[in-house]
Amino acid sequence: MARAIHFHQTGGPEVLRLEQVEAGEPGPGQARVRHTYIAVNFIDIYFRTGRYPLALPNGLGSDAVGVVEAVGPGVTEVKPGDRVGYLLGPQGAYSDVRVMPAEVLIPLPDGVSDATASTLMMKGMTAQYLFRQVYPLKGGETILYHAAAGGVGLIACQWAKALGVRMIGTVSTDEKAEIARAAGCAEVIVTSREDIAKRVRELTDGQGVPVVYDSVGKDTLMASLDSLAVRGHFVSNGTSSGPVVIDTTLLAVKGSIWMTRPAMIHYATPRPRMLAMADELFGLVQAGKIRSEPSRTYPLSEAAQAHAALESRSTTGATVLVP
């Protein structure tokens, strides 16, 4: 038997339950993975609360690392004993062992620990597709990135520095500002006491930035649009403060703004693309340009407490569960 976090109704963290489940044997094209670390992402909260609907009851989590225990017929992507991570596939990563489609498993290279990899699968791959695919950064740009001290944000700070990009990051407190600066964020705006758009204009000699990466959503929408240069790109990559609702006429008024709401599935598939993304990410880790470790660790049984901490906006960096 295995243990897994399930929820039978949407709601607060209290709906999460630790239950006994049957892991089962892998079938054709499948592999059984025993987890060592499980990532907690803000999207998990969207599923738990019903913002992103799931058929219930269901598991939770899409992002984990571990070791392959067994493979089913026809599997060539991995073999027993391989260290792997994943960020795609069905919900259910909040478990100690599970059967997964082998095609979504990413081999972990030597020199990248399970703990480090657990903070990089979803978060690091998100930074990759935002910076290298959605709006490809070449170096020399000045960009605005919201939530710079978050799990993705701290990786983004380091990636921007490695690319030679001047990143303006937003954070909610002075403490988080110091954390973002230490990670390589060139300029930091503390939103509790500074006007975002006004400060961006000051930092860019009135020009604005060519791209804003906004994972906050409703609360930062207008500040993001007001920070953009003419024909700038508004990348809405999350809605932690609430959904973005916009009259497209506003995009014209603000300077013929381009807007996109990217999803990982459209950038990390098919498999060769996903592996190429991971290669670039892990290459930066192995070169010492990106360093990432869990900021907070909870036992699997305390998934509800991990969710409560993440929702409180008190966390920085990555939160993980340990089976």
Which terms summarize this structure?
323 residues, alpha/beta, Quinone Oxidoreductase, Chain A, domain 1, Rossmann fold, 2 domains, 10 helices, 29% helix
Provide the β-strand percentage band. Answer: 25-35%
Gross geometry: globular
Which CATH top level class of the largest domain fits?
Alpha Beta
Largest sheet report:
7 strands, mixed
Which structural class is indicated by helix and strand composition?
alpha/beta
Q: Residue ranges: pLDDT <50 for 5 or more in a row?
A: none
Query: How would you name the CATH homologous superfamily of the largest domain?
Result: Medium-chain alcohol dehydrogenases, catalytic domain
The helix/strand order is EEEHEEEEEHHEHEHEHEHEHEHEHE
Output the number of helix runs: 10
Stated plainly, the CATH topology of the largest domain is called: Quinone Oxidoreductase, Chain A, domain 1
CATH architecture of the largest domain: Alpha-Beta Complex
Q: In the residues, how many domains can be counted? A: 2
* Spatial separation of the terminal alpha carbons: 13 Å
pLDDT averaged residue by residue: 96
| Relative helix content | 25-40%
**What is the alpha-carbon Rg in Å?**
20 Å
β-strand number: 16
GO molecular function: mRNA 3'-UTR AU-rich region binding; NADPH binding; quinone reductase (NADPH) activity; zinc ion binding
Keywords: NADP, Oxidoreductase
InterPro entries: ADH-like_C (IPR013149), ADH-like_N (IPR013154), ER (IPR020843), GroES-like_sf (IPR011032), NAD(P)-bd_dom_sf (IPR036291), QOR-like (IPR047618), Quin_OxRdtase/zeta-crystal_CS (IPR002364)
Domain Enoyl reductase (ER): 11-321
